[in-house]
Amino acid sequence: MPTPYRGTPFQDAADPTATETEPRDWRRSLAQAIRDPDDLITRLQLPDHLREPARRASTSFPLMVPASFLARIRPGDAHDPLLRQVLPIAAEEIPAVGFATDAVGDSAAREVPGLLHKYAGRALLIAAGSCAVNCRYCFRRHYPYGHEPRRLDDWQPALDAVAADPTLHEVILSGGDPLMLTDHRLGEMVERIVRIPHVARLRIHSRLPIVLPDRVNEHLLSTLCGIRPAVVMVVHANHPHEIEGDCAAALRRLVRSGIPTLNQSVLLRGVNDDAETLCELSERLIRCGVIPYYLHQLDRVAGASHFEVDEATGQSLLEELRRRLPGYLVPRYVREVAGEPYKVPVNRP
Ligand SMILES: *Cc1c(COP(=O)(O)O)cnc(C)c1O
Ligand code: SF4
C-alpha cells in the first residue's frame, strides 16, 4: 500500500486554531452529529421562538450538524453565517416562483442509475445519497436518492457505462457525499475505477473535509495517493469561519499528501454575500494550500429562495474580489443551466 507523503507537522502562527491532532474515528463522529433542532437551539443558546419553525421545517428535510461544525458556530448569534446554512427556518416553507424540485435538469442527464453525464469527457457518479450535514440550500432536498444504487454491485452498470465510453477521461465521485462511503467500500470503488484504462482523472466532490474533518484519515489518504489516475479533491466551504481548527488541519493533510485540493462555494444571502467575507475565505483556503475554484450561483431549488443573491450583486462582488486579490484567489462565478455544455460563467453585463 503506498504511503502518503507526510511533511513535518507545523502550527500556523497566523492561525493558532489549526492544531495538528490525529483524526478520531469518523464513523463515531458522524453518529454523534446533532439531529434534533431543539438540541441545536439549546446548545447554541438561541432564542426560543426559533424552535417551532425549526421543528416544522425539519420534517421535510431533517437537520443534521456534526459536532465539529457546531463548534465553529458562535453561541447566542441567531445570524451566525454557519448556523444559517444548517438551521431550518420558516422561510423554507414559503413557495417561491421559479424555485423547483429538479432545478438543474438532473433527471434528463441520468443515463444509467447513479451516473450523470452532462459534460464532455466527464461523468459524475452518485456514489452515496447521504451527507454528514444537511445544507438548507441544497438541491439534495428533493433528489430521489432512494432510486440510486446502494450495494457495490449495483454500481456495476454505471461503471460498465464508463468503461464502454472511451471518451470519458474523468470520473467524478459525488452524491450526496462520496466520502460517506466506508473506507472499505470507497477502496473497492476506487479499485474498480482504476481498472478502467481510459479514466485518467478521478475527482472527488466532498464537503466532509469541511464539516467532518475526521474523515480525512490515514486510510483515505493511502487509498487516494499513488494510484494511476490523477486524483483531485474538490471541497465545499462557503465562509471563512468554516476553515478553522480541525478543518484547517484536515485540508493541510490532504494537500500535504499531494492531492490537489480545490474549493467550491455557493453564493448565499446572509452567509457570504459581501466582498470582505469572500476575500477572507480565499485567504484562509490558500493558507491551507486550497485553491478557490467555483463560486456557484444558487440553484433554484424549492425551499431555498431566501438564500438567493441576484446576479448583478454577484457580479459586483466578483469585480471587488478582482480588485483586491491575486487572480488565482478569485473563484469563477458560474451558474448551472440545464442543457448547457459547461457551467456557465456569470459575466458582467
Ligand atoms: C458540475 C458537474 C461536473 C463538473 O464540471 P466542471 O466544470 O468540470 O467542474 C460534471 N458533471 C456534472 C453532471 C456536473 O454537474
Ligand atoms: S454537503 Fe453538499 S450535497 Fe450534502 S447537503 Fe450540503 S450542499 Fe447538499
How is the topology of this model organized?
Elements (H helix, E strand, L loop, with lengths): L25 H6 L5 H7 L7 H7 L9 H4 L10 H6 L23 E3 L2 E5 L2 E7 L27 H8 L6 E6 L7 H12 L6 E6 L1 H4 L6 H7 L5 E7 L8 H12 L4 E6 L8 H13 L3 E6 L14 H14 L7 E4 L8 E2 L4
Parallel strand pairs: 3-4, 4-5, 5-6, 6-7, 7-8, 8-9
Antiparallel strand pairs: 1-2, 2-3, 9-10
Helix pairs in contact: 7-9
Bound molecules: pyridoxal-5'-phosphate and iron/sulfur cluster.
Description:
By secondary structure, this protein is an alpha/beta fold. Helix content is 29%, strand content 15%. Strand 3, helix 6 and strand 4 form a beta-alpha-beta unit. It starts with 25 loop residues before the first helix and ends with a strand. The N terminus is likely disordered. It binds pyridoxal-5'-phosphate and iron/sulfur cluster. The site of pyridoxal-5'-phosphate has 9 residues, from strand 2 and strand 3. Pyridoxal-5'-phosphate binds next to strand 2 and strand 3.
Q: What is the overall silhouette?
A: globular
**Structural class based on helices, strands and sheet pairing:** alpha/beta
User: How many beta-strand elements?
Assistant: 10
Mean pLDDT: 91
Ranges with pLDDT <50 over ≥5 residues?
1-13
Largest sheet: 10 strands, mixed
